[in-house]
Amino acid sequence: MSVPHHLALILLLVPLAARATVGGDERLELLGYEPVDGKVYFLRIGGGEAVELPRLHFLALRSDAPHAPHRVDSWYRGDPAAAEAAFPGRLAALQARLTPLPARDLEGARLATAHGDLRVCADAPRQPRTAAEARAQVAAWQRGEPDLPVCRLLTLDVTWQGFAGSTGVEAWGAPALVGVHPLPDPRFALAFVRYVGQHFESGYTVDLPVLLRREAPAEGAPSAADPRCGGDRFVPGWSAEWIDAGPWQTAQTRRFSVGDVEHAALVVGGGDRVLFAVGRAAPGGGWCVLARHEDAFGGNGVEGTLTDVLVEGDRAGLVFRQDRRYRGDGPDERVWSVLGVSPAGARWWTRDRAWPADRVRLRWRGDELEAIGARGGREDPLPFAP
Asked: Of 22, 135, 340, 375, which is the most buried if we count CB atoms within 10 A?
């Protein structure tokens, strides 16, 4: 199998000494599937006036973290000129043992975007050292006084023909779904998403791989649109593997009953992302996902904890805490989220950093769920109707 012609052109015309990362669109090129090890290989190709050697990556579908891209550094070690000279031959040898994948497909594909916090972009020339400085930089940007570039944290949810996947990004512009590729492993499909992820000049786009997992087992299981969930998403098991592929490093699960129906809460974290989810047991097995809420705190760190569950009859309230850690010596931030679950549905309610509570408890007052934040000897009740 030959080297793609545009890659060969790049390698012939651009000397290695001229390559540097100064801004330009980044594209992904899917190479194929390696059936022996169950790996999907792709190239990340830089653009712009200065072009670097394409970087080889793979997804290990049989590993514990199939969604996490791995970079093949061995191709680029040692003398740069030697690595450049060896690249075309290595790429051709790799492609000779790969199984080509079907062309990308967009039929039935959907990209949903959830908008999170604004923050100074991770690739800005300098970073705020404290939480107060970070807020001041964002406020200046909102007033039209840009000093440092500001990005928005986005959660991207992709669905396609019974598969689903999610990831968090720090974006400067709107995302778009490029395509979805079926994979030989029936558990997965691979989507490519494109978003403005570099703020240089007028902005440059970045391609991102998003691994999609089949929402239900291939045989004998209800689909994601199972009528027992009344329109909510169905998953066969209550774990991060089914709710969101991650990557996650920590997990907390808590079971509780609302009326005579078993419910469960899940909190998973992965460095700078945290996900909260609540579901109820579906008749005959499996779970209906009633609500999920994700926060990405790119480049810093965030931990999530379920701190309280209050059940009254056929309704429940849950309290989730996020502890955010800034770079440098700045103070941490605590953000509280409350979820109300009732026969009418589920509703999230988040109180941002303007509510400096050390702890939160819940109480029902008629049809309202009241969250009471306490700090020292002071209590601050905040009601809302779930």
From this structure: 340
Looking at residue 196, the DSSP 8-state letter turns out to be E
Co-location of 106 and 10 in the same domain: no
Paired tokens of 72: 């093949």
CA-to-CA separations, 357 to 136, 240, 323, 372, 375, in angstroms, rounded: 22, 29, 12, 9, 5
pLDDT (tens, 9 = 90+) of the chain, 386 residues, equals 344 433 332 333 333 333 344 567 888 999 999 998 899 999 999 876 555 789 999 999 988 778 888 999 999 888 888 989 999 999 999 999 999 988 877 888 888 887 777 777 777 777 777 777 888 888 887 787 777 778 777 788 888 888 888 888 877 767 888 989 999 988 899 999 998 876 655 567 889 999 998 864 433 344 445 677 877 788 888 887 777 766 677 888 999 999 889 999 999 887 667 888 899 998 888 888 888 877 765 555 678 889 999 999 888 999 988 887 765 545 567 778 888 888 877 777 766 545 667 788 888 887 778 888 877 767 767 655 44
Distances (CA, A) of 24 to 27, 47, 199, 200, 203: 10, 5, 10, 8, 8
- If asked whether residues 75 and 113 sit together in one domain, one would say no
Same domain, 256 and 377: yes
Residue 238 shares a structural domain with residue 380: yes
* Residue-number span of the structural domain to which 60 is assigned: 5-96
- Which domain-ending residue is among 158, 192, 214? 214
User: Would you say the pTM of this structure is higher than 0.70?
Assistant: no
